């Protein structure tokens, strides 16, 4: 008994002593040459540029690989050459000749040649993963890509477009993650069973960008190391560490204590709580993600164009943006986000219940009198948006029931066309208006068998030949001025007759320690630059 | 001596007319039956667990293909993955394929991590085991004495305090407790480190031989990392320990009260034994069997991994692994995790059996 108690005390004392000086080195925060970021990284599946299509993975590979064409941190709105130095376009617009930027070296030490660039582009087609559609739309497939994408010499790559798409579109597409130039020799040295290095590249890197991948453990950590030979100069931060911290409140505590330099996922209420803290700065960067509602056109009532118009007038845009969406969303009502070339920034819709009632009556439902289902995600702020819509709908006599689901349960339903009114989010795959036009407006084949599940227009059974023609014209137009006009017209027309109620554009709020400078976060999800950060 | 019956029983109770071979056979089957019994239990548990989880996975509305290829995938990409996952085959055939792979040690690949599920389990389970073990230990070391003290001083201040602590530990939501604890001990006071298993700068220094950072760092002589790991362990295990402690204290108290009200206790006191001997040598020893069951259950339930604690403290354990996999309809990972937890339960059950025998002579027969 005596002994037991003594042993217990000794045990506690031992443990307490170990815990003693609670933190490890650098009591005063993080090391000067390392940037530590608290972020939820569980959306990463792989780190192979031919397969990555989600946010965190996209951001990470954007800092590991140089792409053929790029939007640079110094000027986010102008497309410039990345791994390619310059390009020429043939008169018929069907051939693009790229000149490789000289003296580029991969992290492995291998010199970059045109063969690497051609290999990287062909590999995307051959592996045929989710983002391959960005290139297959040029008419490239596994059989013809070896002859359509060629490297006649060490400095030149020739791309032959086998479709009606404008070369301007192709160049923009080359700035997407699939345009990353991969170290062919390194990747092929790890090839297994003809997989083009696929298994290996899931968790390794083979790039020439500002950082290389040192460590990746799923749901735990990503560590990047600076590339001293990067063409824009060695980055100031020698190491970038992405720490998986799934709880936003925990992220806030970490940044308040200075144990991380950046917190990426803080919610509006947590950010409010940081007001007045002199050590933390909140950066507000507009993003290209849109929150919208889609009304299933196959539904007997929702398929009515007047009903769709009515829905656009029952959303309390201002009310939401001034209350629970404050700081992280702004009103935007066209399918191409504001801040990007060819965006249509007119916002003709506002909360107008009388107009909505009149439209419903015109549609044949005076006083409403029907019931619909609103489907959306369980994650905030979607339930709150759905509730606001539900309230407004009830005021014009439309009853609605909200069902919430996780993304992995909601998307299958959406893709199977089983939704009624769905509230969802959409981010462009690459920085060209065709990326969203293709999704929202273009639906060449509305049959169920066509299964064009990648297009929200198909999912919501929206089929309009006039709109289809406009979208195709925009994609094919070579003259940039004319092209812009087409997209502005298209967005306006979609606002008038489309099934979508586009509501908000997202804005990302990042909490940074006050000594962290130079963080650049552009509109698209992967236009995030670590190399410009200094402390 | 107790009961004083006049009926006499001679010898070992076996009739001398029984054939010696029959006796031999009887004891042989008994000896074999025990481990065979155990093996059979394990097998049934395993098959039952996997079958049920498998069926649940296939009828859930979440789509595992979408989890891999993403929402934007075109039809051909989707179908290629659908076939690759073998989802086009009938359910029974899928299950059979799965079972045959498992007996060869292949638990399939995880969608989230794209690694073999076995590798994932080996990485994540030790983290949970560390937490669960420390929490249970604290639960025992603190909860048992608390329960005994409350029973002995029933109705008095000690009892009330223990019961309130028990109620608190049982009813307070653990995520709230965790965040408040982080706020106080990490953010405000700075006594303990924040979320995570160790500081990020130590990443990669200690080779993960066993997966237990405490053991690995000690084995490799990295004492700074050992201390850091211990300090990171304190808050999350304290969270789980409050829960374990509350339950164990309450049950100990109730068992002890049962014992202390019995006649033999009065006899012992009348005989002049010291209070300590009465409580610990007599009452407590009779409580041990039930206590072992309770502790075993608590340990096993902690081994499932507490996804809430793991989320708040960014602890890469099996709770968050199974939960995330469930949301991704990643059934290979879910079944793998379920099997591991199932093995844990069975193991703890067997261990409890052994302990019973040690503690209670009557169970040795």
What are the key terms here?
heterodimer; A: 535 residues; alpha+beta; eleven-stranded mixed sheet; four-stranded antiparallel sheet; 19 strands; 33% helix; B: 365 residues; mainly alpha; 72% helix; 0% strand; globular; disordered N terminus
Structure description:
The complex is a heterodimer of chains A (535) and B (365). Chain A has 535 residues and is α+β, with helices and mostly antiparallel strands. Chain A is built from 19 helices and 19 strands. In chain A, strands 1, 8, 9, 10, 11, 12, 13, 14, 15, 16 and 17 form an eleven-stranded mixed beta sheet that branches. In chain A, strands 4-5-7-6 form a four-stranded antiparallel beta sheet. In chain A, a hairpin with a 3-residue loop joins strand 8 (211-217) and strand 9 (221-226). Chain A starts with a helix and ends in a 6-residue tail after the last strand. Chain B has 365 residues and is an all-alpha fold. The radius of gyration of chain B is 26 Å and the shape is globular. Classes of the chains: A alpha+beta (535), B mainly alpha (365).
* Main sheet summary of chain B: none
Category from helices, strands and their pairing of chain A:
alpha+beta
Strand content of chain A: 15-25%
How much is the radius of gyration of chain A in Å? 26 Å
Distance between the termini of chain B: 21 Å
How much of the polypeptide of chain B forms β-strand, as a percent range? under 5%
- Summarize model confidence as the mean pLDDT of chain A: 92
Rg of chain B computed from alpha carbons, rounded to a whole number of angstroms? 26 Å
Q: What is the overall number of helices of chain B?
A: 14
* Total beta-strand segments of chain A: 19
H/E series of chain B = HHHHHHHHHHHHHH
């Amino acid at each position: 008994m005596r002994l037991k108690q003594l042993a217990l005390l000794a045990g506690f004392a031992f443990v307490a002593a170990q815990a003693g000086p609670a933190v490890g080195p650098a009591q005063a925060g993080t090391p000067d040459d390392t940037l530590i970021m608290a972020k939820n990284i569980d959306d990463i599946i792989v780190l192979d540029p031919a397969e990555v299509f989600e946010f965190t993975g996209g951001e990470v590979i954007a800092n590991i690989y140089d792409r053929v064409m790029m939007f640079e941190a110094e000027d986010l709105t102008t497309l410039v050459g990345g791994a390619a130095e310059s390009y020429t376009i043939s008169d018929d617009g069907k051939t693009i000749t790229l000149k490789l930027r000289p003296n580029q070296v991969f992290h492995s030490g291998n010199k970059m040649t045109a063969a690497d660039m051609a290999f990287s582009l062909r590999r995307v087609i051959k592996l045929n993963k989710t983002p391959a559609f960005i290139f297959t739309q040029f008419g490239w497939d596994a059989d013809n890509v070896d002859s359509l994408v060629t490297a006649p010499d060490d400095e030149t790559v020739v791309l032959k477009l086998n479709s009606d798409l404008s070369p301007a579109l192709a160049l923009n597409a080359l700035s997407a993650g699939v345009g990353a130039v991969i170290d062919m020799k390194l990747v092929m040295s790890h090839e297994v069973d003809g997989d083009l290095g696929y298994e290996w590249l899931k968790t390794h890197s083979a790039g020439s960008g500002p950082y290389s991948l040192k460590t990746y453990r799923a749901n735990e950590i990503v560590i990047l190391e600076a590339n001293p030979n990067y063409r824009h100069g060695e980055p100031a931060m020698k190491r970038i560490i992405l720490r998986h911290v799934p709880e936003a409140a925990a992220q806030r505590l970490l940044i308040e204590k200075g144990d991380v330099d950046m917190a990426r996922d803080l919610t509006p209420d947590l950010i409010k709580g940081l007001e007045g803290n002199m050590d933390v700065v909140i950066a507000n960067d507009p993003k290209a993600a849109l929150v919208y509602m889609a009304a299933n056109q196959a539904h007997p009532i929702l398929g009515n164009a007047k009903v769709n118009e009515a829905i656009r007038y029952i959303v309390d845009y201002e009310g939401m943006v001034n209350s629970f969406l404050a700081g992280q969303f702004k009103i935007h009502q066209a399918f191409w986000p504001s801040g990007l070339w060819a965006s249509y920034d007119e916002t003709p819709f506002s909360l107008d219940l009388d107009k909505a009632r009149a439209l419903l009556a015109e549609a044949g439902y005076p006083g409403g009198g029907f019931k619909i289902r609103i489907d959306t995600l369980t994650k905030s702020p979607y339930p709150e948006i759905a509730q606001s819509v539900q309230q407004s709908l009830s005021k014009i006599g439309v009853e609605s029931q909200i069902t919430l689901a996780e993304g992995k349960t909601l998307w299958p339903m959406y893709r199977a066309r089983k939704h009624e009114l769905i509230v969802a989010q959409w981010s462009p795959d690459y920085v060209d208006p065709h990326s969203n036009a293709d999704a929202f407006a273009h639906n060449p084949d509305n049959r169920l068998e066509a299964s064009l599940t990648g297009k929200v227009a198909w999912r919501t059974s929206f089929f309009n030949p006039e709109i289809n023609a406009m979208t195709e014209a925009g994609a094919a137009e070579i003259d940039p001025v004319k092209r812009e006009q087409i997209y502005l017209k298209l967005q306006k027309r979609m606002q008038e007759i489309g099934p979508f109620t586009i509501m908000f554009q997202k804005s990302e709020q990042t909490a940074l320690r006050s000594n962290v400078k130079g963080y650049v976060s552009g509109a698209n999800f992967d236009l995030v630059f670590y190399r410009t950060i200094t402390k | 001596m107790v009961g004083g019956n006049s009926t006499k029983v001679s010898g070992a109770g076996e009739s001398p007319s029984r054939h010696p071979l029959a006796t031999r056979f009887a004891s042989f089957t008994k000896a074999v039956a025990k481990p065979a019994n155990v093996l059979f239990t394990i097998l049934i548990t395993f098959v039952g667990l996997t079958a049920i989880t498998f069926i649940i996975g296939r009828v859930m509305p979440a789509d595992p293909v979408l989890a891999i290829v993403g929402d934007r995938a075109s039809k051909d990409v989707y179908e290629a993955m659908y076939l690759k996952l073998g989802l086009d085959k009938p359910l029974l055939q899928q299950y059979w394929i799965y079972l045959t792979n498992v007996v060869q040690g292949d638990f399939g690949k995880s969608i989230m991590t794209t690694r073999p599920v076995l590798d994932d389990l080996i990485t994540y389970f030790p983290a949970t085991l560390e937490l669960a073990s420390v929490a249970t230990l604290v639960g025992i070391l603190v909860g048992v004495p608390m329960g005994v003290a409350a029973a002995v001083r029933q109705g008095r201040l000690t009892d009330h305090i223990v019961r309130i602590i028990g109620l608190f530990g049982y009813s307070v939501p653990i995520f709230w407790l965790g965040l408040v604890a982080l706020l106080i001990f990490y953010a405000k006071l700075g006594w303990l480190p924040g979320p995570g298993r160790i500081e990020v700068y130590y990443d990669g220094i200690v080779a993960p031989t066993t997966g237990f950072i405490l053991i690995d760092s000690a084995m490799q002589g990295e004492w700074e990392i050992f201390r850091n790991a211990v300090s990171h362990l304190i808050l999350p295990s304290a969270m789980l320990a409050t829960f374990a402690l509350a339950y164990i204290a309450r049950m100990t108290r109730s068992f002890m009260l049962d014992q202390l009200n019995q006649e033999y206790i009065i006899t012992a006191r009348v005989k002049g034994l010291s209070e300590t001997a009465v409580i610990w040598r007599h009452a407590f020893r009779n409580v041990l069997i039930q206590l072992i069951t309770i502790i075993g259950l608590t340990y096993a339930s902690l081994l499932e991994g507490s996804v809430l604690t793991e989320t708040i403290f960014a602890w890469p354990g099996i709770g968050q692994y199974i939960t995330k996999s469930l949301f991704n309809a990643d059934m290979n990972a879910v079944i793998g995790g379920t099997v591991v937890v199932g093995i844990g339960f069975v193991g703890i059950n067997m261990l409890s059996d052994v302990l019973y025998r040690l503690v209670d002579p009557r169970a040795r027969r």
